[in-house]
Amino acid sequence: MQLIILDADAKTSPAHGCIPSERSIEQLLEGGMVVIDKPAGPNSHQVSAWARDILGVEKLGHGGTLDPFATGVLVLLAGRSMRLTKKVLSHDKTYVGVIRGSRNFDAEVLGRAVTQLSGQVYNVPPEISAVKIQVRSRQMQTRLIEVDGRDAAIEVTCEAGTYIRTFARDLGLLIGHPVELKELRRTQSGRFKEPQSITLQDLKDAIWLWQEKGEEVAIRRILTPIESLVQDLPKIVVKDGAAAAIAHGAPLMRPGIASISDNLERGDKVRLVTLKEELVALATMHTRSEMVAEMKEGEIARPDAVFLPPETYPRTWKKNDSPADL
Predict the structure, then answer these.
(1) Residue 67 annotated among the catalytic residues of the structure
(2) Which of 169, 184, 157 has its CA nearest to residue 69?
(3) Domains parsed from the chain with CATH numbers
(4) pTM for the whole structure
(5) Structure confidence by residue, pLDDT tens digits, 66-100
(6) Mapping DSSP to helix (H, G, I), strand (E, B) and coil, where does residue 100 land?
(7) CB-CB neighbours of 41 under 10 Å
(8) Rounded CA separation 99/307 (Å)
């Protein structure tokens, strides 16, 4: 998408707010994220609780349940970032699994079966799954990586809520003998990939270096600003006064816009950001972006969730005025 510039002269005050990468560690802990490499054994909630204690924060949630035996990418959300949990949960996921058959696999037969399970597939969770049992239709892309006797490695990229144990069970039905999922690793969740993940020990070491030695390099590599979670959404760049108004509950009005992504339609979801690229809110469009340039006033988008602390930018409206007039 391209940006439509509506006010090329719009400027932001250096005295208020800051570029996300320049936030303090304390600010990142109030609204940021960590990508953990979950170990086998504990469930996702336990890993989240351990990380919460290490970070010393009150609130820390996770963006996607992994069964205790599974390992890999687990996105943890701190403070205000937890309002994005539903969005993170909806991300596509990629897994690599090791399956074991009751007898040696025929590589050609197994390959055909794996291919058959690509596309739109009904996916029913096994009884031992960590989530509520529900029949779902999910889009899956599958690939056979390697076959070695009774063992094989497979890769599955799928929509949120797909059960890989069910995939293994269905493979067994297709090839005519039982298949068991022996190992499972999540290698990607949305745009967050395995190389970006860190262990709980890495997290503990980074926090210790910051708290005890005053060294921020390690913890800054680990803590990611909230903005990284919404980079896939089109954006509207708003002026400082509009950012303050939205933070106090107002909708986005036409005079408050500096630029807007093109090709937006009424009902589209967008991110509202400041001229410093700070996330102000997620919002729903009330008109088309091509119409905005022709408008002088009126409501453009209504926030669904606000993330910018109200005190970040000063009020520019009088006490008896409405911030929605900006």
Answers:
(1) yes
(2) 184
(3) 3-19+227-325 (2.30.130.10), 23-83+193-224 (3.30.2350.10), 93-186 (3.30.2350.10)
(4) 0.88
(5) 999 999 999 999 999 999 998 888 899 999 999 99
(6) strand
(7) 10
(8) 43
